[in-house]
Amino acid sequence: MPELPEVETVRRTLEERLKGLKITALDVPKPTFYRKPPKKALGGLVGRAVEGVDRRGKYLIFRLSGGRHLVLHLGMSGRIVFGERGPHTRFQLSVEGRTVSFHDARRFGRVGCDLPEFGPEPLGPDFTADALYRAVHPRRAPVKALLMDQAVVAGLGNIYATEALYAAGVRPGRRGSSLSREESRRLCASIKAVLGLAVSLGGSTLEDSAYLDPLGRAGSFQERVAVYGREICPRGHALRATRRPIAGRTSLYCPVCQK
Ligand SMILES: [Zn+2]
Q1: Residue 214 catalytic?
Q2: Does residue 258 lie in a domain region?
Q3: 116 labelled catalytic
Q4: How many structural domains comprise the chain?
Q5: Is the overall model pTM greater than 0.90, yes or no?
Q6: Residue 242 is part of which domain span?
Q7: What are the beta bridge partners of residue 93?
Q8: For a surface tag, which of 96, 112, 137, 190 has the fewest beta carbons within 10 Å of its beta carbon?
Q9: Is 174 considered catalytic here?
Q10: Distance between CA atoms of residues 22 and 153, nearest Å
């Protein structure tokens, strides 16, 4: 599933190519809305200029003239491409001679016109060690599930939560309430470092996600993962899976490096 670094990479590519251009047509042949917009809302976006493309968590937000927005979530394996409609196109936007299509065979992607609400952006100034501690400390859920809760911090999924927990030396199954201030500080710093590196490498393209950016370029963070999908950690210890799945997924950790 595309997480913050992949969505950020898509955002940059789209903004580079679409900023300042006017929407000339909008077609949503098989829509799946995260919140159904009023009937004419999507049609009312035609003729507006793309002032920028923003990202909030894992959502892409086309910022349009007149204070309007067009919001897209890529879902599990949705892809944005420059080009024409295919059998799995859920959404197609024409912008002065360019066509942008959203292909989504598995239909987990979402479209809408309202800005979604989330917790802090992990790479922004509001996400601090103190904010993280205050969000997780009252909770008994596994810390990894809390990191993947978009209200605690926006944009993290399985891959980057796994990597950040390894980098911070914290086991994924620990209860939020067991985290010390020092561990929260390390975890906050690790989240920022892992995401920052992944954004600079264009995200991750793993076999099971097959993520590619709108120009068909793969990311390369998968060559730098410490734990996700591996059998031993970078220091040579055998990895272990948590006894219970966390947020529906098997969670790997190093029983020596992570406490
Ligand atoms: Zn280890």
Answers
A1: no
A2: no
A3: no
A4: 2
A5: yes
A6: 129-253
A7: 26, 100
A8: 96
A9: no
A10: 33
